[in-house]
Amino acid sequence: MSRQFKSEVIQVIPETVKHFHQLSPECQVRLPVVKIMLGVSAATVWRLVKAKKLTAYKLTERTTSFNVAQLRSLLAAKAV
Predict the structure, then answer these.
(1) In the chain, what is the straight-line distance between the N-terminal and C-terminal CA atoms, in Å?
(2) Model-level pTM?
(3) Do 71 and 16 touch, CB atoms closer than 8 A?
(4) d(CA 78, CA 48)
(5) CA–CA separation, 8 vs 69, rounded Å?
(6) What's the sign of the alpha-carbon dihedral 60, 62, 67, 70?
(7) Among residues 30, 46, 62, 71, which is most buried (max CB within 10 A)?
């Protein structure tokens, strides 16, 4: 992998993911952040929601968010 390509990949990472450890437990994040943090696909995230291992909060008909504290506990438990 070329050095230029590596720097381009790093720039694609959302700021929320870069500073995830600084987010307060009450914060909400969107699906792309959850996918990156868990290292899974969107389908797997929705399977976790269906299995009640992760709670999805509907903000609007087309917007869903996830709680940072719950995501951290899921990561800590390695339940994925």
Answers:
(1) 29
(2) 0.77
(3) no
(4) 12
(5) 30
(6) positive
(7) 71
% of the chain surpassing 90 pLDDT? 66
Q: Which residues contact 74 (CB under 8 A, 6 or more apart)?
A: 38, 48, 53, 54, 80
pLDDT tens sequence across 2-39: 555 555 555 567 788 888 889 899 999 999 999 999 99
The string over 24-49, giving b where at least 16 C-beta atoms fall within 10 Å of a residue's C-beta and e elsewhere, is eeeeebeeebbbbbbeeeeeebeebe
Parse the chain into domains and list their residue ranges: 15-77
- What is the three-class DSSP state of 32? helix
